[in-house]
Amino acid sequence: MTARPPIKVLFLCTGNSARSVMAEALLNVLGEGRFQAFSAGSFPSGTVQPIAAELARAFGYTAPLRSKSWDEFAEPGAPAIDIVITVCDNAAGEVCPIWPGQPVTAHWGVPDPAGVQGPDAQRRGAFQSVWAMLCQRVEQLLALPLETLDRAALQQALRAIGRVESA
After folding, report:
1. Would you call 96 a catalytic residue per the annotation?
2. In the chain, at which end, N or C, are there fewer CB atoms within 10 A of the end residue's CB?
3. Three-state helix/strand/coil letters over the chain
4. Cβ partners under 8 Å of residue 79, min gap 6
5. Residue 88 bears catalytic tag
6. Could you say which of 7, 9, 10, 13 is catalytic?
7. CA of residue 167 relative to chain centroid, distance
């Protein structure tokens, strides 16, 4: 029996500094090799938010995180992406590059924790709240019967995950 290659998921956000990076870390850890997650931004900030990186490390994600352009994933030789998920409202409305292989797309909008101003505890709380929202959505993705879903059903299921309010 041949092992199935991991499903490649690209999480997109405008700055690729917090939400998309956290989603990448969550899916790579929780997916346990069934998925290979990446993140990128339309206008990457060039840095990962320190609290986002701290949460990823504490969760067990050891790969280096970096803020990068979505152009990297549209170039020849880039990994063939199966699923593209936007996690911020700005990226959802932007014109995305044409992805080779026409991946399934969905939008899982979550608030931007990087935009929260105030004391450190308030900022950390915002990041932890977004982390929990993304974790819940990633767990819903992992619970999908991927082997039995056709492309249209997968897209519908992924989009439904983005519409569910977090607990």
Report:
1. yes
2. N
3. CCCCCCEEEEEEECCCCCHHHHHHHHHHHHCCCCEEEEEEECCCCCCCCHHHHHHHHHHCCCCCCCCCEHHHHCCCCCCCCCEEEECCHHHHHCCCCCCCCCCEEEECCCCCHHHCCCCHHHHHHHHHHHHHHHHHHHHHHHCCCHHHCCHHHHHHHHHHHHHCCCC
4. 8, 36, 38, 73
5. yes
6. 13
7. 19
Phi, psi at residue 137, to the nearest 5°?
-70, -40
- The residue extents of the domains of the chain are 7-159
Task: List the catalytic residue out of 30, 96, 144, 153.
Answer: 96
What is the CATH topology of the domain spanning 7-159? Rossmann fold (3.40.50)
Active-site residue, from 12, 37, 84, 88: 88
One-letter amino acid for residue 40 of the chain: A
Torsions phi, psi for 95 (to 5 deg): -80, 115
pLDDT values of the chain reduced to their tens digit, one per residue, 167 residues:
456 899 999 999 888 999 999 999 999 999 999 999 999 998 899 999 999 999 999 999 999 999 999 999 888 888 999 999 999 865 555 555 666 678 999 999 899 999 899 999 999 999 999 999 999 999 999 999 998 999 999 999 999 999 876 54
